[in-house]
Specification:
The chain is built from 11 helices and 21 strands. Helix 1 packs parallel to helix 5.
Length: 498
């Protein structure tokens, strides 16, 4: 029974992983608390206003992190129910079978997971159902074994269908992008915003809040949630093998301790590592559960290039563009998918005068792509805490040869598709979309932080349910895998408690 802020399970973070785990434990007789640094985003007109979302950065916190040279930068992170998934474009890929194995690239190796695709497959099924994923079985040549999608695929608008035919004539196999946007097939998406990078004011995008947290809170009234509350430290017992609670501070500066039998870290890849690093003690002078010195290391964030391809003589009036992808170059390259339609507000942020001047002309004509390759884990790419407690993210891009070759192949394909002008926004070390790693999962406690069951090697009731535990990054969006793995970890916790 819950007594005096004492819970069976305390979840740190209400992003996609924390929300999925909370949903999986609902109505089980388990006393649950969720601590979230932010709160619920308002459903308001500004949700779909490009000037507010892009130019004014209405929903982005004013965090300052520091890069490897000690220079400050503003990370694109979000503290709210659903976390960064509130702003994702809805892409809901399963990792491929090869993504769970060790495989080599010219500049290094990917790291194997401690289990294979088959382990996550049933949890992918549940995550897709709850996230209302739309797709078409068998259309993706790299697709792992699976059943049918819960919903029919999203339909290409005419300009995207034209492009798909051009790609097919080159022997490529474009397919419907698996999407957690409930559009068509009984869905209520009204195509009121570009979606990608915007919160949905009508809840037609099944992010962490809409798919998991809201249903959990609605179905289980006993779940306690603490919004606008930041965890500053995790406390352990005198032996150091169990976590017993967390120190928190709320928006009014009030400090307190919440106790729990089990604690789940789901604060996001960087913040989860930062919390462990800040949780020092005599037994853990380098941070909690960090006897391996691996906490914070192996940070990954996909190599992402944005391509804007256009012809001066063809307009692209598409409103919802994120409906198509192709994986013909996946194994030694990566994934290519449409991204949310570029708006002139995006281009006006460019430091290039000609881009600003031609922003409306380009935005009206561009077909916009997200070209994604695997970022390889490196112990030197890591999260550190500075003396004042602020975050330092040390990162050098990896696997660039593979990525640049993929970009070159895609540019060639697009030019053959009669889109002769291609503008490129290359990867940047300060762009941290799809962040993963920092608390690597593995069987060897000397080279990993998290055991295959989902708890840390050294503190056995401290679990991790976000992408920080991912050993490798694959080359597709991680959202669905975050949800699936969180559901798997929830099963472990449930079996231990009940």
């Amino acid at each position: 029974m819950k007594q005096d802020n004492y819970y069976d399970v305390l979840v740190i973070g209400a992003g996609l992983g924390g929300s999925a785990l909370t949903w999986a434990l609902r109505n089980s007789g388990i006393n649950i608390a969720v601590v979230e640094r932010g709160g619920a985003l308002k459903q308001e007109e500004e949700n779909w206003d490009p000037d507010e979302v892009i130019a004014n950065k209405r929903y982005e916190p004013k965090d300052t992190w520091f890069d490897k040279n000690g220079e400050p930068f503003t990370p694109r992170v979000y503290y709210n129910y659903g976390g960064s998934s509130k702003f994702f474009g809805g892409s809901a890929f399963r990792f491929r079978e090869i993504d769970f194995t060790s495989h080599s690239f010219p500049e290094g190796d990917s790291v194997a997971w401690p289990f294979g695709y088959d382990t996550l497959a049933p949890y992918y099924d549940v995550a897709e159902e709850q996230m209302h994923v739309h797709g078409e079985k068998g259309s993706d040549p790299t697709e792992p074994p699976r059943g049918s999608y819960p919903h029919a695929p999203l339909v290409n608008e005419p300009a995207i269908e034209w492009l798909a035919k051009k790609l097919e004539k080159q022997g490529l196999r474009p397919f419907p992008l698996p999407s957690a946007v409930h559009q068509g097939d009984g869905g209520h998406c009204s195509k009121g915003s570009p979606c990608d990078g915007f919160p949905c004011k009508i809840r037609a995008k099944f992010d962490g809040e809409n798919a998991f947290l809201r249903p959990a809170l609605k179905e289980d009234k006993s779940i306690d949630i603490f919004p606008y509350t930041r965890v500053t430290k995790i406390i352990h017992n005198k032996e150091g093998d169990k976590a017993v609670g967390v120190e928190v501070i709320n928006s009014e500066g009030f400090e307190s301790i919440i106790h729990a039998k089990n604690i789940v870290l789901a604060a996001g890849t960087v913040q989860s590592a930062a919390i462990l690093l800040a949780s020092k003690s005599d037994l853990y002078p380098n941070g909690l559960a960090n006897g391996s010195d691996q906490v914070g290391r192996n940070f990954m964030s996909h190599n992402n290039t944005v391509l804007m391809a256009f012809s001066p003589w063809r307009k692209n009036p598409t409103w919802f563009q994120k409906t198509m992808a192709f994986n013909d170059f996946y194994v030694k390259g990566g994934n290519v998918q449409m991204r949310g339609k570029i708006l002139h507000q995006n281009l006006e942020k460019s430091g290039t005068p000609i881009m600003k001047k031609l922003s409306r002309f380009i935005a009206q004509r561009s077909f916009d792509f997200w070209v994604m390759s695997e970022d390889l884990p490196s112990k030197e790419n890591r999260v550190e805490l500075r003396e004042d407690g602020s975050i330092r993210l040390i990162r050098a891009l990896t696997n660039l040869q593979t990525h640049n070759e993929l970009v070159a192949r895609v540019k060639k394909v697009l030019k053959k598709a009669r889109l002769p002008i291609i503008l490129v926004r290359p990867p940047s070390s300060s762009a941290i979309q799809h962040q993963m790693g920092t608390l690597r999962m593995g069987s060897d406690p000397n080279t990993s932080v998290v055991a295959p069951q989902g708890h840390t090697h050294e503190v056995t009731n401290l679990f991790v349910a976000d992408a920080s535990s991912f050993p490798s990054s694959a080359a597709v969006n991680p959202s669905l895998t975050i949800a699936a793995n969180a559901l798997r970890v929830a099963t472990v916790i449930r079996n231990q408690i009940i």
